[in-house]
Amino acid sequence: MRHVHGRARRAGVALAAVVTWAGLLAGAAGCTAGDSRSGLDRMLGKPAAPEDTIRVMPQDGTKGVRPEEGLWVRVPDGRLESVRVVRSQDAQEAPVAGRISADGLSWRPDTARLALAARYTVDAVAVDGDGNRSARHTTFTTYVPGERFIGYVTPENRATVGTGMIVSLDFNREIENRAAVERAVTVTAEPAVEIRPHWFGGTRLDFRPEDYWKPGTRVTVALRLRDVEGAPGVYGLQHKTFSFTVGRDQVSLVDAARHTMEVRRDGALLATVPITAGAPKTTTYNGKMVVTEMLELTRMNGATVGFKKKDGKGEYDIPDVPHAMRLTDSGTFLHGNYWAEPDAFGTVNLSHGCVGLRDVRGGASDTPAGWFFDRSLVGDVVEVVNSNDKQVAPDNGLGGWNMDWAEWAADGTVE
């Protein structure tokens, strides 16, 4: 299954003894497919579309929202259980204060006006009139004044990340003068290591070292974009320095043919977990993928990522997928699964392209999915091998580790 939506959190780090998840087999695919569809329908009924269950304005993916347009979250019935809104500016996150109405049907921020040149993330969980929980995750960006450009930066300031993190700037406008913009961005590390840039088109600039970062490395990113001309008459707005720390080294190897995932911490085998990957007609990408988002609960609807039936509805629509970890921008996740038939994990591939681990409804820490989620960080690497699919594109999520160093380094415009 390749999709998004839910309530986010960043997992803590904990060491554990080597565990083998033998005997924990149960359930079916991480993304619903074929034979398990009728069982899923029985369990979930026919859920309403995500935008009907939890309504958010501005709409998901909207760009250039004006400050006076405001923000609200509503449900037609039932009640909002929780709403979390985060504003991100210059790689620094800040929670947006707000409150749920007395009747539980709506949420509004305490301050009506939105900030300029910011990205907002909304995570809401609701309980409908029948007592069913569902989640929605949306993002939008606000207006950048005048002929200005900014770069939305990954990761966040002061974050602790896995060793596979790539520094990524997503510009709100096409950059024509790449050399000038590249010179205005400096990425350094302590201890020192060579770091090189790579452009993906005219709106994205990534930085990485030749190999994964060493644990304990402190990385500093300096943006000196203010008044830099990125395109004729379009000037930068940011003058900011931020940093992040690299945590322990964790790399997980998913073998789609063997239906297993080996989790290695600092090179030592921590666990071997049974999984289910993409079905023969909806295979999982091969290659190295980086965790970019962690959602305790999320909604996944196939219609939003191209898996549609003849009536236009999604081939699946699951309102409360637990322990979801985004691996690609196109919607590949590693996530928990509670809706499946017995003995699929470790034996067969049934999903729509995701990697599924056994879980229970609502998620639990003592399931394989919960165990892995609690020991993961944004920036951890998940590598998939032996799948009958192509290698993931280097600009699909933080997939730049799939390019060799010579190809990566050759794209920078500044020596």
Describe the structure concisely for a colleague.
The protein has 415 residues and is mainly β. It has helices at residues 37-44, 50-53, 178-183, 368-374, 405-409; strands spanning 6-8, 19-20, 55-57, 72-74, 79-89, 92-95, 98-100, 106-109, 119-127, 133-141, 148-149, 151-154, 160-161, 167-171, 185-190, 195-200, 204-209, 218-224, 229-231, 234-236, 239-246, 250-255, 260-265, 268-274, 287-290, 293-301, 317-326, 333-337, 355-358, 381-385.
How much of the sequence is in beta strands? 35-45%
CATH class of the largest domain: Mainly Beta
Structural class call reads mainly beta
Which fold does the CATH topology of the largest domain refer to?
L,D-transpeptidase catalytic domain-like
Protein name: Ig-like domain-containing protein
Active site: 335, 354
Signal peptide: 1-28
Organism: Streptomyces vulcanius
What is this structure's SSE topology?
Elements: E1 6-8, E2 19-20, H1 37-44, H2 50-53, E3 55-57, E4 72-74, E5 79-89, E6 92-95, E7 98-100, E8 106-109, E9 119-127, E10 133-141, E11 148-149, E12 151-154, E13 160-161, E14 167-171, H3 178-183, E15 185-190, E16 195-200, E17 204-209, E18 218-224, E19 229-231, E20 234-236, E21 239-246, E22 250-255, E23 260-265, E24 268-274, E25 287-290, E26 293-301, E27 317-326, E28 333-337, E29 355-358, H4 368-374, E30 381-385, H5 405-409
Parallel strand pairs: 2-24, 11-20, 13-21, 22-30, 28-29
Antiparallel strand pairs: 1-26, 3-4, 4-8, 5-6, 5-9, 7-8, 9-10, 12-14, 14-17, 15-18, 16-17, 18-21, 19-20, 22-23, 23-24, 25-30, 26-27, 27-28
